[in-house]
Amino acid sequence: MFKKAIVKTPGESLVNGLSRAGLGHPNYEQALVQHGNYIDVLKHCGLEVIILEKDENFPDSTFVEDVALLTPECAIVTNPGAASRRGEVASMQKTLEKHFIHIEKVFEPGRVDAGDIMMVGAHYYIGLSERTNQKGALQVIKHLESYGMTGSTVELKHVLHLKTGVAYLEHNNLVASGEFLSKPEFEKFNILEIDAVESYAANCIWVNDRILLPVGYPKAYETLSQAGLDIIEVDVSEFRKLDGGLSCLSLRF
Ligand code: GLY
Question: 4-252 has which fold?
């Protein structure tokens, strides 16, 4: 069970964040409202939410998940794949020092966005993407192994991050869409298939036996409810415009 989450208030520079979604610029006021609702939902799930101040220097810094991997044993501060995001790690490291005894780091030439890392118990799947390279993944695996955990890599081709298309919802349930439906690595899971037209809904998260699912994906809602999952819908439409979503907006630990 998670006890805490770290989130970061979006700055007005959010509207200039990285995007390949082709959905236009986010509306800042609406993004702030959605971010506030997201925090309320995390609190409703029993989490203490640590809210970091906005940083206008880093338009994408509200997507805190990418700059660190939090495990029960240690935090690993990443070296993000996008140059414009690399400066986000310094302030996050300072925050993490208040909560973690052990902090490890990813160094050049390793590159990792932790949106590419999916936790399944003590094993971590690391997507090799346009943001995460083999050298970065190997550094993460070495850190994990030094604390008794394990990691392995997964190739991905069509989405930004591993967790854009796949989410582990505990109890062997794996939500998957597109290229992840046929990965041998994931055959052992109970796959909950997300239809291609609703692929954005694959970015959902497990929070203390509740499932946070984006609003507006009725087929995905039906699939997850049929599986007996307890769903809370959350509107993150403005963050979707920057390829972000429910997992990207918090670090849960
Ligand atoms: N807009 C989030 C990212 O590309 O990292």
Answer: L-arginine/glycine Amidinotransferase; Chain A (3.75.10)
